[in-house]
Amino acid sequence: MSTVSLSDQAVHRPRRLVLAGMEGCTNCAACEVRGHGVCSALADKELERLSRAAVKVTVPAGHMFIEEGSDAHDFFNVTGGTVKLFKSLPDGRRQITGFVGVGHFLGLAVSDHYAFGAESVEQVQLCRFSRTKLETLMEEFPSIERRLLAEAANELVAAQDQMLLLGRKTAHERVASFLYGRLVEKYGEHIPPVADILLPMTRADIADFLGLTVETVSRTFSRLRREHLIGVGAGQDIHIPSVSRLEAIGSGDG
Amino acid sequence: MSTVSLSDQAVHRPRRLVLAGMEGCTNCAACEVRGHGVCSALADKELERLSRAAVKVTVPAGHMFIEEGSDAHDFFNVTGGTVKLFKSLPDGRRQITGFVGVGHFLGLAVSDHYAFGAESVEQVQLCRFSRTKLETLMEEFPSIERRLLAEAANELVAAQDQMLLLGRKTAHERVASFLYGRLVEKYGEHIPPVADILLPMTRADIADFLGLTVETVSRTFSRLRREHLIGVGAGQDIHIPSVSRLEAIGSGDG
DNA sequence: ATAATTTCTTGACCTATATCATTGTCCCGA
DNA sequence: TCGGGACAATGATATAGGTCAAGAAATTAT
Q1: Which of residues A132, A164, A196 is at a domain's end?
Q2: Residues of A in contact with B169 (CB under 8 A)
Q3: CATH classification at residue B202
Q4: CA of A13 to C1' of C29 (A)
Q5: pLDDT at residue A24, as a whole number
Q6: CA distance B197 to B111
Q7: Contact between chains at B163 and A161 (C-beta distance less than 8 A)
Q8: Residue that is last in its domain, among A164, A184, A206
Q9: Closest approach of chain A CAs to the CA of B148, in angstroms?
Q10: Which nucleotide is at minimal CA–C1' distance from A93?
Q11: Contact across the interface for B168 and A253, Cβ inside 8 Å
Q12: Cα–Cα distance between A181 and A209 in angstroms, integer?
């Protein structure tokens, strides 16, 4: 509980907030994620227009705000917190297809139904657009479309990496890959050689992301600890003494 | 040997054709895949321009034409045959991330290197564009961009399905899903209740796609045959007496 | 045709990971 | 401060699918 706690004061507000709890949108130009996500592609004039189409939403931890198969009315841009995306089988088996953080875009649907569900891992801020409005905006500002295409290409690359992980990596490699991925999410290109991460998600979420069981994830963390590849601090705080070593294991260079 | 054999006469042409064997582009307006893929988004005038940027390439079976990590100079549009896309680990473990057929687009790279390799499963026709030229064309014709975004969204949905498969389905379900997917590729929305498919890929390819071994794939085909869920004809020809039953198994409704 | 080669199938056995069960730990609320 | 419920760790055991091995079938080359 250290990193994201800046807004903790605000958290003490009652939790009754239900899905679709929303406040009228503030100002996109002053938005904290200006420079990330869809918005980074936009000039001031375009942002002005975007403002009017967007609604800021706060979702408390552990709330599903996109239900698999429901009507795809909206697009979202994550402006705070971490979201998990998932698909499920009828008997409850679940695959988390990604954890997405600040700046990421969410809701590209091919039909008029969402092909996946989305749930907040921790308290999350979203910027919501109606699909129809966004489509209108795209007509007007092709730069939005370009930005969306770039985002989609990125996600596609990530998805391919994840397929390699799920199809061909061992549990040891999967967990190492996962931790390395979290470092990339946190630091971008410039990952320090020694680093720390705070994992907001549970072991069960990690298991559902890596195609493993909770027990295997737990055992694998223990193994990595025994091997001094990670230090598990209090709570969810993970210390990584050698990022390069971790990365090597995650990419199959044992 | 029944379904795709229409073009079998043409196949007897010599096989010596090497990679990058190309003919000057013909006419996109008369192209057999006009109406599919990127091209379907284009008006005649746009197609005319596209023609000049495109080069038709024929690749014989089993040739790698995109090497993982190589410089991403080109985009491709598949105009004939089936291509496999894959990622590998240093020790040779491989994950096929998709089989793509006629009309599909290929080469969306996020950096200037391809994040995946591509190899022809059977003899393949490609329409090749230089990335820089395509970028210029996108500036001029936003409809191309729109079409690309739609394609990317589609692939993303497919990728998520595949993650669910790789992370959470049994071998039985995986093979059933795979066969159903082939039906979707062949028939689109309108799959007949009883159908046939011809699989151009080997068991090893199927295994690398499903995150299994060749032996497990083979055993699972045998099991499906025993269960009368498929009929394996001569060669690669698969008969599916109940598409709905197969689909149910593939989606986890045993 | 026939040999050589690749692909496919099947069997015997093994191992990585799943499953089941227990205990410990950490929150949060009263 | 205590108690309940989620979360996590770990041990014992089971199993789906992997590995190794051999032969059959299909494909390609001579």
Answers
A1: A164
A2: 89, 93
A3: 1.10.10.10
A4: 16
A5: 39
A6: 37
A7: no
A8: A164
A9: 7
A10: C18
A11: no
A12: 12
